[in-house]
Amino acid sequence: MNTRSNPIAAYVKGIVSFKAPAINRKARSIFLERIEKSFSLLPEEALDLFLKGSRALVVVVLADTELPLGMFTKSGGRAKARKYTVLTYTEHASWPENRFIGSFVRELAHVVAERPPEDEWPVPRGERARFKEKLEHRADAMVWRWGLRHYSMSYLAATFPPHWVERIVEEVARILLEENLEN
Question: Please, what is the angle between helix 25-41 and helix 7-15, to 10°?
Fold first, then answer.
């Protein structure tokens, strides 16, 4: 299907920037296909935020570092005009598809939830760490609410030790339960 008849493909082509100097054609293709698939899995109201321009997003593929790093989202700008950047690394093309999608939709959840820039986070280290953890749990809960729990679990199980995964799952379940009680 060409990009004219596929708005997600056209959108992805416009937002993905390859900054890694030696990324090969196969890896580029893997990134684009998996990012498109990730967007296609979103519920319509979340997808519309991106396609209609309500969330300004750029996805940057960087060269690998000496340390394995996960994807992460940076935000900047005023609250009403935030710009988001999801940073990925070439090594992510080698991840199994479910892990890649689980990680990427988690980053999209940060964008949908309008993750604040780090300069708006609490300053003391302990409070800052708890705030970041809360943001991650909220993003995971959003992914689960979208019906994409299996992708989330693929990512979590491949990334964190089992006792951390259990703690994350408990926290996400608590968040979802609280939301159900509020509604």
Answer: 130
Please give the structure tokens belonging to residue 58. Answer: 């750029």
In the block, tokens 């990427």 appear at 104
Q: What is the mean pLDDT of residues 57-67?
A: 92
Q: 156 near 148, Cβ under 8 Å?
A: no
For residue 143 the two structure tokens come to 């992914």
- In the sheet that 83-89 helps form, which strands lie side by side, from edge to edge? 16-18, 56-62, 83-89, 72-76
Rounded to an integer, what distance in angstroms lies between the CA atom of residue 169 and that of residue 150?
Answer: 12
Q: Report which residue type is found at 53.
A: G
In the block, which residue shows the tokens 């082509």? 13
Taking each continuous run of H as one helix and of E as one strand, the counts in the chain are: 7, 4
Residues 9 and 52 sit within 8 Å (Cβ to Cβ): no
pLDDT the model gives residue 4: 52
Neighbours of 124 (CB within 10 A): 9
Beta bridge partners of 89: 62
Residue 152 backbone zone (phi > 0: left; psi -120 to 50: alpha; other: beta)? alpha
Q: Report the b/e string of 47-59 with b at 16+ CB within 10 A.
A: bebbeeeebbbeb
Model-level pTM?
Answer: 0.94
